[in-house]
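yo

u said u wanted the structure for the complex thing, so here. seqs first:
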Amino acid sequence: MKHLIDQLARERDLPDEALLSLIRCETPEAEEYLAQTAAAVRQKHYGKDVYIRGLIEFTNYCKNDCLYCGIRRSNQKAQRYRLSEEDILECCRHGYELGFRTFVLQGGEDPYFTRERMVRIVSSIKQKFPDCALTLSVGEKSREEYEAYFAAGADRYLLRHETACPCHYAKLHPAELTLAERMRCISDLKKIGFQTGIGFMVGSPFQTPQNILQDLRYIQSLRPEMVGIGPFIPHKDTPFCDEPAGTARQTLRLLAIIRLMLPTVLLPATTALGTVSGDGRVRGMQFGANVVMPNLSPLSVRKKYMLYDNKIATGEEAAESVHLLRKTMSAIGYQVVTARGDWKHE
Ligand code: SAH
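structre next:
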């Protein structure tokens, strides 16, 4: 495997068969070498810096019915909430004091947040925190709507493609959601000029190594500034309640592979990775990740944004505990920085 990993690091690419064998490879030696190689590439572009993003989960209302997701519209048991503009600004103020210079507004696809409301929220955040970057993650919208967000000052947008295989996509989503439309959104975001993040769940139901290969090919062709991957974790009130979770190890291997393919990508060690494995986010850094996204939502709603079971929300994951995160990261030689943490050109 070593020669394949070296080749991937050198050429940022591998033929399909070689890439598949790397995706499938589970030996500790290969993992160790992947981690080393990815960490060296990360070091070259981002040093030991860890960028932090304050994640504000501002609504869990959703008009979609994704089969894997705990806040899908059919889940009658979800306790729905939405934050007011004032609540959101308060989260930002708190986050700013804690050292956050990027805020991420994430939510279900909630029709209450019309274009006008979103534009107002984006404008006031950018006006009050002009030195901060703002990321949106609110799902599929028209090109015009994305343009309005961008004109209002939003800098980045996260929209995971979820899987690059149309058949697999159809097994994870109801018929009204299509991969073609998801990709239309992603391509619009990129054209408009957002720093764009895509990604997928690792170990989602029906996922094959071939699907992961397709995901990596799509990532290579789009050249996103950010890639978010995390293990699938079942949620008890969804059709996938009995499906097995994805593993931390496979997620870590894929983080490293993605770092080698896109050396300057912004790559978070996600909450889901921290949920399946206590040291997941720290291990993530050692496999090439350079971003963490602590939870900045008000404590009163945090337990309600349950995309999957046992999602971590307090403890070291929480924004208010960023001092603990700083300590943990510095113990392994990384430093949490107070910076926007934009994508870098090579
Ligand atoms: N509505 C927004 C935000 C979705 S939540 C959007 O459509 O982009 C952010 C991500 O959480 C999703 O893209 C999905 O990949 C992930 N997610 C949802 N349910 C999950 C689960 N059960 N396990 C792991 N990740 C999940």
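The radius of gyration is 19 Å. Residues 28-46 form the longest helix (19 residues).
cya
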